[in-house]
Amino acid sequence: MQELNKHVKSINHLLERYGVRFGIYKNGTFKEQLFPFDPIPRVIEHEEWVELEEGLIQRVTALNMFLKDIYGEKKIVKDGVIPPEFVFSSSGYLAACEGMVTPKGIASHISGIDLVKGNDGVWYILEDNLRIPSGASYPLIARDLCRTASPATFAHTPVEDNRDYAEMLFETMNYVNTGGLNVILTPGRYNAAFFEHSYLAEKTGTVLVYNTDLIVENDVVYLKTAAGNQRVGAIYRRTSDEYLDPLAFNPESLIGVPGLFQAMKKGNVAVLNAPGNGVADDKGIYYFVPKMVEYYLGEECKTHNAPTYLPYYEEDRKYVLDNFDNLVIKDVAEAGGYGVVFGSTLTAEKKADFIHAIKTEPRRFIAQEIIDFQDLDILDEDGVTPVPRKADLRAFVLAGETVRVWKSGLTRFSRDPNSSIVNSSQGGGFKDTWVLSR
Amino acid sequence: MALHFSKAVEDQFFSMICLPVDTARQKVLELNTLVQPETVLNEDTDGFGNRKLYGCVREPHREFLLRTEGAVETGSALYEEWQDPADIGLVRYQVPTDLTAPGPVLQELFREWAAGAPEDPYGKLLYYGRLTGERIRYVPGTTDSRTTAEQAAALESGVCQDIAHVLIALLRMAGMPARYTVGLIPGEGESHAWVEANCRGYWYGFDPTNQLLVDEGYIKISHGRDYRDCMISRGIFKNPYALQTMEVSVSVAQAEE
């Protein structure tokens, strides 16, 4: 493992050359920044992984059942398990998807579940990402480079090989494919994760397409090629719901495929992930995931949510207001580390504003106990000294014929010693994640 | 509805919610739809039970026309019964949307008016409907299709869309399920928007712009949470240099007995 540290500069140099970047929009301008790699991997013991894996499979299974239920029978709402206003006022709930039946009943094919490991040794789920979670390509390419830099490291350590991600993704697409090509639809080169779209297309042997490469005719999607139109059976789209089809969603979208939604509704093409998934990874719905597991599967939830309060419930609201300084407050409408505040860091004025907002719009917020989560060592700027930093883990769960967890994941860390927000859009870095095979 | 393009366009995709549905209030007797250039017209139902027509014109063209003619019988009832194809319940029409979420102006307005509001839900609809129509003046050109209820309330002016949004926001604040409704009124002109509120299980319509109860003169096309759910026409076409002008004309006349 120490061996890799020597190569950190050359690996980061190669990542830069390969264009492993992360684009962010700030004040209306697009900036690409490198996503710095740290050579010290996060290591997860075999037994610990097995337990985590079981929990994640259970969680994603229940979330998929929830999505099918919400756009169908709505039993969980009718049975009073989740109050309807949490579901139907969520910005992720898309009325257009009502009654939609997805191929093989799967809505969240690729799920990115964010976790942290507490100092108590428990893994806590921070959030579920069921729309278009990005990040799998980073540990993939980093592992490749590490393997090249130090082959011996991998010969001597029992690390699960993570090169099967492309195969898992390909199998997932094939399983739901309605007959035709698999394609990866990218919004374009100014998207934050464009590198990943092209990398995954290359690794899965799938066509990388822009919206203008696809055409819908009589509710069937075709890829325009020099040899004529070829039918498309599955689209791993990396364009967000809102921009996917100007006829169904945001009418001003220029990066969408007109008519795609109707083609999907007719069952003529599989869209991974299905639109409308935002209703299940809403920060307010998060609170209810353990209840979903019990409701749909009749099992006790094996994953642990961070202790969460919903100001919507009077009792919780009182607790949140009384303990404001000890909690993290999240605005449910925001993503990517925006809209997250620590009660204790606010000025008196800001705090009063927040408290007023919580009282008037309780549905907009959730509050969580601050989890004392483990630090991981990263190499300091001198490239030699290990320093502790806050880090999380994004586990990738793929739902096809079976639900499987990729034996790797994206470990992100905060470079700022005083921050525990690790999102890449906030300037963090990443590590490889090693799952031990024994 | 006609679209004129300054230059020829191709691959024009369109999606329209423009056909009336059968309800307790109205019965569609006859309906003929014509599209030019000729193309396949597909039909589907959206998440609110509205009828959606969609299709595509591939070959280059400069004119697009969609015309619907028909006969609708109204007057059998003043209300619609509660029917929800999505089986969600009323909650969808009770929560704020981007266009109807109240801000300080609407909250203040609500505080000012709530004190004098009657208890009865139907009475509430009339009360808030009348006050809204008096306060928000009909002044075309002061707002656009993205104007929110809050902005229109601050301007105290707008078109039927804005006046309906303000009334919806107020009714929802008062705890009443309210929905945006698009349709046709007698005469010649454009489509119109009004509000339906759920009073003890029945939807009653009020037109705050004209300060009128929705009676047999109104033909309903669609309803939703706000304007965005009921957009009559959506579309996209290929040719970045072409400018589009839209012409919508509606003509409603009473049939002879």
What does this protein look like?
The complex is a heterodimer of chains A (438) and B (257). Chain A is α+β, with helices and mostly antiparallel strands. Chain A has three domains: 1-161 and 280-305 and 380-428, no CATH class; 164-272, Rossmann fold (3-Layer(aba) Sandwich), CATH 3.40.50.11290; 307-369, Dna Ligase, domain 1. Chain A is 31% helix and 26% strand. Chain A is built from 15 helices and 21 strands. In chain A, a hairpin with a 2-residue loop joins β1 and β2. The two termini of chain A are 17 Å apart. The mean pLDDT of chain A is 91. Chain B has two domains: 2-74 and 233-252, Sandwich (Immunoglobulin-like), CATH 2.60.40; 79-230, C8orf32 fold (Roll). Chain B has 257 residues and is an alpha+beta fold. Chain B has helices at residues 104-114, 121-135, 149-155, 160-173; strands at residues 2-19, 26-36, 42-45, 51-57, 61-74, 79-81, 137-138, 157-158, 178-184, 187-189, 192-199, 202-207, 212-213, 219-224, 233-238, 244-247, 250-252. Chain B is built from four helices and 17 strands. Classes of the chains: A alpha+beta (438), B alpha+beta (257). Chain A binds chain B through residues 73-74, 77, 84-85, 88-89, 94-99, 215-219, 246-248, 251, 258-259, 262, 265, and chain B through 11, 13-15, 40, 42, 44, 46-48, 54, 56, 85-89, 91-92, 94-96, 224-225, 229, 231, 234-236.
Quick take:
By secondary structure, chain A is an alpha+beta fold. Chain A is built from 15 helices and 21 strands.
Main sheet makeup of chain A: 9 strands, mixed
In DSSP terms, counting alpha (H) and pi (I) runs of 4 or more, how many helices of chain B? 4
The proportion of strand residues of chain A reads 25-35%
Number of strands of chain A: 21
* Architecture (CATH level 2) name of the largest domain in chain B: Roll
**Poorly predicted ranges of chain A (pLDDT <50, ≥5 residues)?**
none
Structural class of chain A: alpha+beta
The oligomeric status of these chains comes to heterodimer
| Fraction of residues in helix of chain B | 10-25%
Query: Total domains of chain A, how many?
Result: 3
